[in-house]
Amino acid sequence: MKEKIVLTMEQKAEVLTQALPYIQKYTDTIVVVKYGGNAMINEELKEAVMGDIVLLSLIGVKVVLVHGGGPEITEMLTKVGKESEFVDGLRVTDKETVEIVQMVLAGKVNKNLVNLLQRKGGKAVGLCGIDGHMVQAKVADERLGYVGDVTEVNVDVVLDVLKTGYIPVISTVGCDADGNVYNINADTVAARLAGELKAECLISMTDTPGLLKDKDDPSTLISKVYVSDAPKLIKDGVISGGMIPKINCCIEAIRRGVHKVFIIDGRVPHSILIETLTDEGIGTMFVSGNHI
């Protein structure tokens, strides 16, 4: 077990002093956090993440939490005797499955996160993409059924919640004009919401340290990536497999006006605070412009 580091009062004061410029920088700005992966399954990590979000909210950061819930969906499908089927890494979602997705994401997972944030001293409101026609969608691929591509995003309800001092907690189901419900990738929704909200940054919590030159060597972490570098990184195989759609969402957010996008390791306790409130940072930061 990792030994707990105990700081003196002077060291604690120094940590707070070092955080002050970052607190001033982020106060009254919007930060979108995409939450998923191991940090969402491990209860100790979940407690830490929710505590971090409440802390940011209390110092004046307008946090928008966007979450997935793949493992919980799979667990519920198993309970009802329905086998999960995937095509190119995406869940095939028929009519029965999308009803379960809606129930699990907008119900159980969403409300559990709202409850936990409130237990940590925060003020939170649970929403889904259907509320206020926030996330409108269409069929992404006929083979996948009710898996959606985002067609339009309306952030009015999110802004209303933020204005009243609450943390919006958003599950990623959307709908179309005919009332059909769609399961939508959480990275995609987070990127589009961050862009429409003109967020200061988007933080994507994953199960990797960030973008690595060598996927098997954490010491090869690339700390900063310019959007213009991405095509070469894909060509060279640095960005590959499941990281390609995730990186594409980061680029989409930057192109829609988000100042910075971070991919951080959600398995590291307090990784959100390390990224936003310290000199060192953690993970990979994506920015616009060219690498000089």
Give a description of the structure.
The protein is an alpha/beta fold and 292 residues long. It has a single domain, classed as Acetylglutamate kinase-like (Carbamate kinase). The protein has 10 helices and 14 strands. Strands 5-8-2-1-11-13-14-12 form an 8-stranded mixed beta sheet, sandwiched between helices. The chain has a two-stranded antiparallel ribbon with strand order 3-4. A two-stranded antiparallel sheet has the order 6-7. Strand 9 and strand 10 form a beta hairpin. Helix 4 packs across helix 5 and helix 7 packs parallel to helix 9. The longest helix has 25 residues. It is globular, with a radius of gyration of 19 Å. The relative contact order is 0.15. The model has no long low-confidence stretch (mean pLDDT 89).
Which terms would index this structure?
292 residues; alpha/beta; Carbamate kinase; eight-stranded mixed beta sheet; two-stranded antiparallel sheet; 10 helices; 21% strand
Task: Outline the secondary-structure elements.
Blueprint: H1 9-26, E1 30-35, H2 38-41, H3 43-58, E2 62-67, H4 70-79, E3 86-87, E4 90-91, H5 95-119, E5 124-128, E6 135-139, E7 148-153, H6 156-163, E8 167-171, E9 173-175, E10 181-183, H7 186-196, E11 201-206, E12 224-226, H8 230-235, H9 243-255, E13 260-265, H10 271-277, E14 284-287
Parallel strand pairs: 1-2, 1-11, 2-8, 5-8, 11-13, 12-14
Antiparallel strand pairs: 3-4, 6-7, 9-10, 13-14
